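Blackboard transcription, Thursday session:
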Amino acid sequence: MAGVAAVAGGVPGNKVDWRLAAPLGLTYLAFFAAPFVILLGVSFYADSEQTRLGLDSWTKFYGDAFYRKVIFDTLKLGVFAVLATTLLAYPLALVFRGASPRAQRVLIFIILMPLLTSVVIRTFAWIVILAREGVVNQTLIGLGLTSTPLNLLQTELGLVIALTQIEMPLMLLPLLTIMNGMDQNLIDASRALGASKWRTFFKVTLPLTLPGWIAGATLVFASSTTAFISQSVIGGARLVYLPALIYQQVTVVYNWPFAAVASFTLLFTVLAGIMALGWLGRFARTS
Amino acid sequence: MQRSTLGDVTYNWIIGLLAGLAVLILIGPVLIVIAISFTTSQTLKFPPPGLSLRWYVELFDSVRSAQIHTAALNSVWVAGTATLIGAVLSVLAALAITRVARPSARFLEASFLSPLVLPTLSYGLAALMFFSVLGIRPSLNLLIAGHLVVIAPFIFRTTLASLTQLDPVLLEASANLGASRVYGFRRITLPLIAPGIAAGCFLAFISSMDNVPVSLFLSNARTSMLPIRMWGMMESTLDVRIAAIAGVLILATLILMIVMDRLTGLTKRVSG
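(Written on the board underneath:)
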């Protein structure tokens, strides 16, 4: 307990008791770092029976055009999800900023509601909406826009629409935070100097809120590329992304080394996206 | 001037329309699922042809929905235990590294937060291979360990944020007045960071209840978890009971959220 207090002071210059970080640190070493070491080790087995060492699993994965397309499709899905959530989240954040405190509370509730509803349930909701006799098709047929129901399930378009709802709160929360902290004087000044609302948005609001967008885009990208349930249930068997590939290799094909390679590929894909967004943030600040 | 006014009008329209679409897309699916959970029909037709509680009766039937009940209890047990252990470990770790500028402290902070952005599906597979190499058979305890790693960052993050906002003058004053450090922690630090810890625990618990990537690999028929069970129900037959489960979960989350909001101002905390 004395250790707790020594740090609890948090007074600069006080000696920090590192032992307090040890329980969580050791837990991470044992249950987080060690499993990844094992995963890396398994990826260097050349065969699914794990008898022979070699780089075969890696070369087979990256040498095959099919698997390269799976990587590309996964990246593309993440980019589409980021674009779609951006297109809807920015206007909502702008409206939120101008809303009364009471309206803001209602909006926060609307934004948090899907976040607090299980991902599986949100996916289920989109099956109901996008199915052949679902809400979207009923509306389109009712309006006379189409005579035959559209096939929205098991298409990339349907998956992106569903992911937009599933991931949008992740984009909105950092965006709202930064949007609310923005100085109104800068916008008023831009307007007073004769800039149109569009110009003010692109020249003032957008650059100032970019850090919030980067934070949101990072979460959306990481989450949508690994959204196994949404991808496999809405995308169906025809659309294959890295998470489904990993699951199949483990539970159907029983090729653990290959699954390990696919897992690291997923890890690299997400990290590449995060780094690209971070780079974009630095680039935007300097230019 | 004429042109800029026209531009401003289209701006208002486009922003308004897109924001309206965003609200519709956010809340619509949730409302549709709730409506369907009260249907009289065997199908997921919307709008429901008639209203009844038949699917809730079916869901709470201890014989016909026994597997769902087991999965739900497993999920609550794993989420509760992992959150409790995660809270103790995360608060200690946050106390240790808050206000420390050293690179090693920043490295620890980044490591403790990393499960939030790293693909947890990769981690789920890594955990499966790790435990199988060690020869440990799947059990609820393994699931607790796996969930602990991916949900502790939520508590660590909110606790760290609360500690950073804490005014060190308060503790100096308490020390100057002769209070021991344990007393200072118990009477000053802990009450001030308690809302942050509680908000983190809430997010961690919800996230564990909802976890798919880790449970996908660590759970089996004996240790089934609710989201995995629901996924199975979705893959086989589109059972209307899923909508009833959704109704129950949404109601439970709402109650928890309102209680948390009263206690800690969660909505303020989450939105900054």
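Lecturer's comment: DSSP finds 13 helices and no strands in chain A.
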